[in-house]
Structure formats: structure tokens, C-alpha cells
Amino acid sequence: MKTLALPDYEAAIAATRDERMRWWREARFGMFVHFGLYAQLGRNEWAMACENIPPQEYEKLADTFAPKEGCCREWAALAKKAGMKYMVLTTRHHEGFSLWDSKVNPYNSVNYGPHRDIVKEFVEACRENDLKIGFYSSLMDWHHPDGGICAYDNAARRRFLDYIQALNTELLTQYGKIDILWYDVPEPLQSWEGWDSLNRNQAMRALQPHIIINDRSRLPEDFGTPEEHINPSERDWEACMTFNGVSWGYLDSKQAAAYSYTPQRIVAMLNTCCERGGNLLLNIGPMPDGSVPQEAIAPLEAVGQWLAVNGEAVYGKLEKTYGNQNQANGVSRPSTKGNTVYMWNKIWHPVNGDMALGGFLNAPRSIRFMDGTPIDFEKKGDRILLHGLPEANPDPILGIPLLKLEFDEQPQYRFASYFPQLNRGLERPVI
Ligand code: GLC
Q1: How far is the CA of 184 from the centre of ligand 1 (A)?
Q2: How far is the CA of 234 from the centre of ligand 1 (A)?
Q3: For the domain that residue 387 is a member of, what is the CATH number?
């Protein structure tokens, strides 16, 4: 198949991006699953490299790898319950062990350990729960003999690139429609040319024409991947976050719980993603037997309950809004759908039933709670003053009540009206 030169390729994928990514942009929230031999060590998925474990010693983990039957269904059921719309599984991490029936890589979960095709089980579980399917595929490989020398030896590079292409071809031809190809760590080769990504990614798209590809094969492709921080950008982006800020792979739950996100922190991350036009891919690192780590269950179920009530402020086409001018008070951030603004109140702070939302230049025609209960308000200068609010936090699930402001025209903001120098859009201060 004749491949396109880079400018033509990028123009071609840009032309189909809106159609290919519509579901992804509206999905907002996905589950990342880091599962592999490293789960048995419980000391981060990089243990092999960080602890300089000799490959022959590390390979013994393949024989003791024993994910229980149905573990993929457990992950998918929790993702569904949490209000997540897609999942991404590490089909083969840097350790080089394939979780599928690979004819290219004998170091896999059918030849060793469970003697099962975990990727197949994962795909089935996603489809049973109406979740879109993402395959994580590491470029870096600590097991393959050419995984390191490929950057110093052309013959080794060609062999290794053929290997990577064959692995990904198996993944994109053996399991039906796949929605996301999630590359990771393009090391040691330092350029897209070195990785031959232009040719490989065109071949992958030919196999799965609707597929979405991330930016970690040293080409921008379809979306950016800020990691462990929520860093918005003009392009499509997805913040991938561990559940604890420590490890993607399994950690002892008793100790990991001390670092793990509360449901409120997860909703706060979702709020930023919704406000600024990105997605949240939140990770779980299943236990050695494949069980969901205990510390992730209750928070994700609570987030799902909250989303069941407030999901219209999260899912679907949202406007990208930026910066302080949208901050109607110090503890609330919006998400915006057309001319409707949802103010996410991380703190509920009415004083004698009153609360102010600054920054709005035009008044909404209505303000309601998400259950439709109307809220009395008045426009006063550059503020909207709300009255008659309950002292008790109206959100019984997480204490993060949303206010729904419906405008007849696009809401106009001005932040810090009395300090115009702080306003975005004015000429830059000269001193
Ligand atoms: C980093 C880590 C890798 C993890 C990935 C997830 O690349 O090296 O272990 O899978 O982040 O985004």
C-alpha cells in the first residue's frame, strides 16, 4: 500500500478527525487498566528496570501469572458503574509480555501463566458493557533482544520495527472493531522516522479506519496525553492519571489507600477536563489475581452515582472555556453546553441563603438545581446574586451541587471587573 508523505497524511487524518472523534470527545471519561506480570511484584510497573532485575529472573513471573476467570468483567462492570465510557488496557507493557494469543511474541498469556487470551476477555467484557475499546501498546520493550540495540544497529532496528508492526497488526485484526490505539514510551528511537511511525500508523488506520491514535509514536496523530497532570491544550487532549500518584501498576491496597483519590478529587479533575475541553483517563492497577484494587471501588462507584444525576454537565458536546473569566466565584468552575452554564460548586457556601456569581455580563433566563428546582436570583452590576438557597449542601452524594444557568444568548464573562488589567483579551500590561 502506497503511504502518504507526512503533510498529506496529517491533512487526511485531520479531514476525518471530527467524525472519528465525536464519540470520544463526548465520552469524556475512561478507565485505564495497567495489568501485567509486574502486578505480582506490587512495586510499580517499572520494577524490572528500576531494580535491575535480570530478564531470566523476571521471566519466571510468567509462570506464576494467574489472573482469575472473569477479572476483565470485574473491571468493565466497575467502569460502567463509574460512568466511564471507554477503557484502555495495557496489552503489552515495557516488560514485553503480551496479554494475547500472539504468534509473533511467544512470551504471552496463552503460552504461560493462565494460558488464556486476556485481551479477548477484555474486548468481550467491554462490549458486554457497551464500552469503547482501547489498546495500549508500548513501543519500548525490555524483553525483545532488539528492543535496546535498535537505536544503534540498522538490522536490529528493522527487525524490531517489523516486530512492533506485527504485534499491533495482530491486535487490530484479531479482535474486531478497536476504537483507540494508545502508544507509549517511544524509546530508544528518537524520531518518528526512526520508529517508521508514518508508515506503521497508516497501516494501522487501513486495518481500522475509524481508530483514534494518541501522540506517543513521535507523531501528533489525534490527541495529546498530559500525564499525571491536567494540562489543557488547543488540540484534543486526554489527561491520564494514576489512582494514587505513585504507580500505574498494582500497589498494596492498604498502603496505596493513603495516596488514593477521593471521589471529590476525581470529580474536580473531571470538572477541569469539562471546562477546558479534554478527557480524563483514570487508571486502576489490578491485583495479581486481576481483582480490582479495593481502594478504587468505593470512590469510583460514588463518582458514578454523582454522574447519574449530573452527567448532562459532563457528557456530550461541551464548549472549551478557559481561564479566570469563567470563574464565577473562588470555588466553582463551569462546564458549558451551548448557552447553558453548569457551575460546579466544590464548596457550598451561601450566607443567609445568598450567594454571588461574579463575572457574568448578561443575565440567564433561569437558574435551577439539576432536579429542576428554580433558584431566585437578580443581576446586579457584574454579579448575579442568588437568594433563598438552602444552608445544607444540596448534593447528598458528594457535596458538589451543580447550578444550571440557562442563557438566551452566549454567556459573556468579565473577571475582576474592578481590575481591568487582569482581564484576558485586553492589551497586555506594559509594565
Ligand atoms: C509512563 C510510564 C508507563 C505508563 C504510562 C501511562 O509512560 O512509563 O509505565 O504505562 O506512563 O501513561
Answers
A1: 7
A2: 23
A3: 2.60.40.1180
Instruction: Kindly give the number of the ligand 1 atom that is closest to the alpha carbon of 45.
Output: 9
Q: Is 135 in the pocket of ligand 1 (CB under 6 A)?
A: no
Say which DSSP state 404 is in.
Answer: E
pLDDT over 90 percentage in the chain? 88
- Residue 319: CB atoms within 10 A of its CB come to 18
The 10s digit of each residue's pLDDT in 41-72 is 999 999 999 999 999 999 999 999 999 999 99
Q: Which residues pair with 376 in a beta bridge?
A: 387
Atom 9 of ligand 1: nearest residue by CA position: 45
DSSP state string for 99-143: SS--SS-SSBTTTSTT-S-HHHHHHHHHHHTT-EEEEEEES--SS
Ligand 1 atom at shortest distance from the alpha carbon of 240: 12
Instruction: Kindly state whether residues 274 and 373 are assigned to the same domain.
Output: no
What CATH number corresponds to the domain at position 174?
3.20.20.80
Q: What is the pLDDT of residues 109-127, one digit of tens each?
A: 999 999 999 999 999 999 9
Find residue 227's DSSP bridge partners.
240
Q: Which atom of ligand 1 is nearest to the CA of 94?
A: 9
The answer to the question of residue 200 being in a domain is: yes
Q: Are residues 255 and 361 in the same domain?
A: no
DSSP labels, 157-168: HHHHHHHHHHHH
296 and 343 assigned to the same domain? no
What is the extent of the structural domain holding 79? 6-313
Give 320's pLDDT tier (boundaries 50, 70, 90): confident
Residue 34 has φ and ψ, to the nearest 5°, of -100, 105
Does the structure show a pLDDT above 60 at 323?
A: no
Read off the pLDDT of residues 396-410 as tens digits, 9 standing for 90 and up.
999 999 999 999 998
- Give how far the C-alpha of residue 314 lies from the chain's centroid of Cα atoms, to the nearest Å: 14
Answer yes or no: is pLDDT of 413 > 90.
no
Do 399 and 303 share a structural domain? no
113 and 253: one domain? yes
Check whether residue 100 and residue 129 sit in a common domain: yes
Which residue's CA is the nearest one to ligand 1's atom 10? 248
Whether pLDDT at 4 is above 70 = yes
User: What's the 253 CA to ligand 1 centre distance in angstroms?
Assistant: 20
Do residues 407 and 339 both lie within one domain? yes
Global pTM reads 0.96
Closest C-alpha to ligand 1, atom 5? 184
CB of 182 closer than 6 angstroms to any ligand 1 atom: no
Structural domain count of the chain: 2
Residue 184 Cα: closest atom of ligand 1: 7
